[in-house]
Amino acid sequence: MDSTYVKEMERLSNEGRIIEKGDNTYSSLNMKPVFYEPRPDALTVRTLTGLRDYLAANRDKLDPAALIVQVVDHKTVSIISALSGKDRKRDNLIAAKFDGAVFGFGSWMDSEAFIIAVNSLFLPSSGRDEVLTYVSRLKIEDEANLSDDGVSQSATIRTGIKGGLVETAKAPSRTVLIPYRTFAEIDQPESEFVFRMKRDGNGGVMLALFEADGGAWKSIAQERIAGWIVAAIGKDIAIIA
Q1: Do 26 and 114 lie in a common domain?
Q2: Burial class of residue 194 in the structure, from the number of CB atoms within 10 Å of its CB (0-12 exposed, 13-18 middle, 19+ buried)
Q3: pLDDT at 65 (0 to 100)
Q4: What string of DSSP letters covers 186-213?
Q5: With contact defined as beta carbons under 8 Å apart, do 159 and 166 qualify?
């Protein structure tokens, strides 16, 4: 029996706050029943495929009709049981938790770190190519090389086949990108981002991307997760998102 439960019962008993009535024990603090119902620890996997395989193997002899798949958010999906026990609670049987690497939105990076992160943490797209092409051609040498009117920014970039020519060009201030932000089994939601530059005080430039869709992509991710589960597991299990 859980030691915390035992200690709490001892404390209530010593304070005269335990009332026995029939087969039930109550606390005089709120007159609610005091239960000890052992619950299994939830398993944890990192993919939606892990949830599917758990249900397919069904080593715990579960009734699919009595289970609920809860899409908690874009990075957590749980399989929970029907209400059970005297305390009428649900068992959290298994949870898939996304823990993949994600881009540091809102964080300033030097150009090298930025290029590596965008290359590795975003799916190929025209927006990604536009940002990478611009950043790779930046030529920041003095204050005049970077201008900002509060809405858009311009900087000096290298042009020509060998990059021997320079010109002032506007940065892609708002662009649509597809970062890795949720389970790999679903299509990653695309959304708008704001690209910004600032000087670092040492003659270089710092770069950052800021989310610009108010978090709407999270709802899209949840819908896609629910759709994947229906296709992979079937409709015998209730799904809430």
Answers
A1: no
A2: middle
A3: 86
A4: SPPPPEEEEEEEEE-SSS-EEEEEEE-S
A5: yes
Model confidence at 16, pLDDT cuts 50, 70, 90, reads very low
Tally of domains in the chain: 2
CA distance 228 to 50: 13
Are the C-beta atoms of residues 167 and 156 closer than 8 Å to each other? Answer: yes
Q: Assess whether 114 and 29 both reside in one domain.
A: no
Residue 10 has pLDDT above 70, yes or no: no
Please compute the mean of the pLDDT values over residues 39-68 and round it to a whole number: 90
Rounded Cα gap, residues 95 and 75, in angstroms:
10
CB 71 within 8 A of CB 226: yes
Taking the C-alpha atoms of residue 131 and residue 204, their distance in angstroms, rounded to an integer, is: 18
| Tokens (6 digits) for 176 | 């649509």
Q: Please give the average per-residue pLDDT across 36-65, as a whole number.
A: 87
Q: 179 in a domain, yes or no?
A: yes
> What span, in angstroms and rounded, lies between the C-alpha atoms of 188 and 71?
16
For the chain, the average pLDDT equals 82
* Residue span of the structural domain in which 114 resides: 109-214
Residue 80: both structure tokens together: 């929970």
